Automatic annotation (TrEMBL):
The chain crosses the membrane at residues 117-136, 142-162. The keyword Repressor does not apply. It comes from the Bacteria. Keywords: Membrane, Transferase, Transmembrane, Transmembrane helix. Pfam families: Rhodanese, YgaP-like_TM. The lineage of its organism: Bacteria, Pseudomonadati, Planctomycetota, Planctomycetia, Pirellulales. It comes from Aporhodopirellula rubra. This is Rhodanese-related sulfurtransferase. InterPro entries: Rhodanese-like_dom (IPR001763), Rhodanese-like_dom_sf (IPR036873), Thiosulfate_ST/Rhodanese-like (IPR052367), YgaP-like_TM (IPR021309). Residues 14-106 form the Rhodanese domain. One of its GO terms (molecular function) is transferase activity.
Length: 181
């Protein structure tokens, strides 16, 4: 997989004319994103649709960015698996972009998804313990179920709770929320 750091990307295209997609959640994108990026969330990424929408420039490089570089690497792998080789992961992501002093768009901030997952998991564990103590001992099973889910997420990198929370209305942006490149 090809990679590029934000400084080199900016030096290559000082006028900002390159195709950059941001694969973070819509709420993360809304909070802050590179000025020239457009939002294409990883969870709904279809490499063929993205390449078709590029108006005949499917052979030009496609740059992919996220917060720090992990999700964009996953997105690049999706493109490569679909047969699109000219995809480049932006190292360091939006964090590095902002630290380099490159232009960003700031909007409404949202609570990060993992923080929402931690709050929900903690609440469910505590609820299971309290209900198990005061109502019926079987409610302790709720805490065990959440713990097993967290272990599954740790081992596989897949978190069903995060997927559900990401689909909640407060984690959706209305009106697209992307800028044109």
């Amino acid at each position: 997989m090809q990679t590029i750091d934000v400084k080199r990307l900016n030096d290559q295209f000082p006028n900002g004319h390159f195709d950059l997609i941001d694969v973070r959640m819509p709420t993360e994108y809304r909070a802050i994103h590179a000025e020239c990026a457009r939002s294409v969330p990883l969870e709904s990424l279809d490499p063929n649709d993205v390449m078709t929408a590029r108006n005949g420039s499917a052979g030009d490089p496609l740059y992919v960015i996220c917060r720090s570089g992990n999700r964009s690497a996953q997105a690049c792998e999706k493109f490569i698996s679909a047969g699109f080789e000219n995809v480049i992961n932006v190292e360091g992501g939006t964090v590095a972009w902002e630290q380099a002093g490159l232009p960003v768009v700031r909007g409404k901030k949202a609570m990060p998804l993992m923080q929402q997952v931690q709050i929900t998991a903690g609440f469910l564990v505590l609820l299971g313990v309290v209900l198990g103590y005061f109502v019926h001992p079987y409610f302790v099973g709720l805490s065990g179920f959440v713990g097993a889910g967290l272990m599954f997420a740790g081992f596989t990198g897949l978190c069903p709770m995060a997927s559900m929370i990401a689909k909640m209305p407060w984690n959706q942006c209305v009106g697209g929320g992307s800028c044109s490149v």
